[in-house]
Amino acid sequence: MSRRQRLAALGVCLILVGLNLRTVFSSFSAILAEVRADAGVPAWAVTVLTTAPVACLGIFAPLAPPLARRFGAERVLLAAMAVLTVGLLVRPTTVPGWGALPSLLVGTAACGFAIALGNVLLPGLVKRDFPHLLGLMSGLYTTAIVASAALAAGFTYPLLAATGSWQLALGAWAIPAAVVALVFAPLAWNGRDPLHTADGQGPRLARDSMAWQVTLFMVGQAMMSFSVFAWLAPILRERGVDGATAGLLASFSIILQMAGSLVAPSLAARLTRQSAPNVVAALLTGGGFALCIVGPLGGIWVWAAMLGLGQGSLTALALTMAMLRTHDAGTAARLSGMMQGFGYGLGSTGTLLVAQLRAATGSFTAVAALFACVGCFAAVFGALSGRRRFVGSGEAEPATERVR
Fold first, then answer.
1. Is there a contact between 376 and 289 (Cβ–Cβ < 8 Å)?
2. What's the rounded Cα separation, in Å, for the pair 104 and 120?
3. Binning pLDDT at 50, 70 and 90, where does residue 169 land?
């Protein structure tokens, strides 16, 4: 296989991997009411099952760089897809004498571990192998990630209706993960050397202000994004929207995310500064989510559109900052590990706060105020991280290094 053919195949595989990195979140939320009713899942477990996956992304993200140094990034990514397949298969099974809850917890944790590795490795691989196409490839793989959420949000409820089984509706998402693992296996097994810098090399991220600004931007993005994945459909259903329409609204919003995630990285890569798009995306997301919760139902499709366009752009921009604010693939991967470790770890508090506020107040109204504030928080750090600076140098990006 020539180098050009290998790059084309790798690009396709990275996009296919992205198509499986969010199904675990939106598939569960789409049929949460049915799972609770049939499996007898208690309220505390619902909180855990909506919070734990995001927390796992933060807990396990730091493991990706050392694993990639030891085994190679492609092989670790392949292993992650295999673990994801197993986790998706385990999640809907029932343990005799124990019920469905243990499998839901174990399978969800396994999926979180696998997705954490994929989240960190994808930006580094794009930085390493597609430095001349950062905007395009960032847009394509983040759009694939968003599409995975859209597919799960839109098709899980119809699968439940067609089969009459929530286990089959959830377990079906293991099929595309297994297919991608099989397709990627030959390429990954013959992968290149690890993309990461050795331990102790590169800028010290913990002491770098730009690294922290990018990380806090990621925190705000993660708090909103995963709360939307976990709670948008239940919020809409509590407001009186039927299950099928709630799924369609969630899917519609996520489809618009695809448009935002495809366009935003290419636009950002062509700008000298990314502060303006970062701020607009953050405010659209926070405002759109708040309006979905408390805005008039007559405008729900407009609020869902605002949320979708904003969230897709915000997710893509946050991930793209790891590439635009670094000099090399190794630093990009390390920054990706840091921002996703802290971002998803702290971002998981978003889903937890939604559950706690709902339990404490009896409604989702307070959640609207929370995410309006989170949107403003993300906007502040989006403006800071969008400045024309490099992690590790604090200097303006040289004209010769600008991403086209």
1. no
2. 24
3. very high
